[in-house]
Specification:
This protein has helices spanning 3-6, 20-31, 43-53, 65-72, 85-99, 110-118, 120-126, 139-151, 170-180, 220-228, 241-249, 254-257, 260-273, 279-284, 310-327, 338-342; strands at residues 12-15, 37-39, 77-80, 102-105, 129-131, 157-164, 184-188, 191-195, 201-206, 209-215, 232-238, 286-294, 300-308, 334-335, 354-357. The strands form three sheets. Strands 9-10-11-6-12-13-15 form a seven-stranded mixed sheet. By secondary structure, the chain is an alpha/beta fold.
């Protein structure tokens, strides 16, 4: 069957379906009764997965604009799962704008959020939504930020932190390497500020035990401001003292990390050393999110939630957004954060998510 023949009968597309996370999403989508069109640049792997799942497919390379537009033609939305998104999202956003198709992705990259936000007016003119970050990056943290703003409308500072059980995904780790040359980032007075790696450290408490943590340039440094308007924002990741020390040593080699050849070398090393978790590992690991908002008068609000493993949360969170847009078209268009589209408590509706404090 040709790609053209295979495209019939699907109203949404997963690009990067041949990757680990994309395949997990495709499998769960089919289990729920969907029949998404599968796509990616590896024709053989896309075709094999589509054959196994009984879904349409249309393999193409993001560098071929005409083929990409043909692949998404007739779809109502695209869920983009092929990173690093700083390298892949622009081509897909261009195609979605040209075809009038909603764009979703699972990025956690500040620059991608910023780029999509910058095209909000274009998307609104086309009547479509641009909603990057519909996975573990950044649905749970964005929801916590939104709930804290509701609890403390006068908040002027926001701290978010997370502990990713089972470690970071290969894609997130590769993305982190790509961003090391830019250092860390925080918000001050509503403005994104570049800071050194592991700029600040502190501890958070989980189950009565302290967790050391360091600041990282997580996507919420951008998105939480759009969601809440809170001007001062920091995001932390739980890390051992040894890991924090290593991150601080990177300050001395940051100039080298601005060279693409160095970044690509490190990304190849990561791809070779980090392997996606087994279903058993995903089942027995989880993630924990802390959130704190404070007002100038000293009042504070705190929320803690626990979620399934980041991969599993990404599957259910992304599909929930897909289903919302397919079943109940958004009454707004343009750039939206996950909580702006789905509501502040969306994350609490996902399987396996539990409030641990403050709710």
């Amino acid at each position: 069957m040709s790609d053209e023949e295979s495209k019939a009968g699907a109203d949404w597309l997963i690009y990067g379906a041949n990757g680990y996370t994309g395949a997990l999403i495709a499998e769960e989508a089919v289990r729920r009764g969907h029949r998404p069109r599968l796509s990616g640049r590896n024709r053989e792997r896309v075709s094999a997965l589509a054959t196994r799942l009984g879904t349409p497919h249309a393999a193409c390379d993001l560098g071929d604009a005409a083929a990409l537009r043909a692949a998404i033609a007739g779809c109502r939305l695209v869920l983009h799962c092929a990173g690093p998104f700083s390298e892949t999202s622009r081509a897909m956003v261009d195609a979605c704008l040209a075809e009038g198709v909603h764009y979703l992705d699972i990025t956690g990259e500040i620059d991608v959020f910023s780029a999509c936000h910058g095209r909000s007016a274009e998307a609104a003119a086309r009547g479509i939504c641009l909603v990057p970050g519909v996975g573990f990056d950044v649905v749970p943290t964005d929801g916590v930020a939104a709930m804290l703003k509701e609890a403390l409308p006068e908040a002027t500072s926001l701290v978010l932190a997370f502990e990713a059980g089972g470690g970071l995904s290969v894609g997130t780790a590769k993305t982190s390497v790509a961003g090391l040359g830019k250092g860390g980032r925080v918000r001050r007075g509503g403005v994104l500020i570049e800071v050194p790696p592991a700029f600040k450290t502190r501890t958070f408490v989980r189950g009565g035990k302290a967790r050391s943590a360091m600041t990282i340039p997580w996507g919420d440094v951008f998105t939480a401001y759009i969601t809440t308007g809170i001007p001062d924002i920091e995001v932390y990741i739980s890390a051992s003292p040894a890991t924090i020390a290593s991150a601080r040593r990177l300050r001395w080699v940051r100039p080298l990390l601005r060279f693409g050849v160095v970044t690509r070398f490190l990304q190849r090393r990561i791809a070779a050393s980090l392997k996606p978790p087994s279903p058993e590992t995903r089942a027995k690991t989880n993630a924990y999110i802390w959130g704190e908002a404070a007002a100038k008068d000293g009042r504070a609000a705190r929320i803690e939630i626990e979620t399934p493993n980041g991969y599993d949360l990404t599957v259910t969170a992304a599909l929930g957004v897909v289903e919302r847009l397919l079943d109940s078209p958004s009454r707004t268009s343009g750039y939206l954060t996950p909580s702006q589209l789905m509501g502040s408590r969306y994350v609490l509706s996902l399987p396996g998510v539990a409030a641990r404090a403050g709710l």
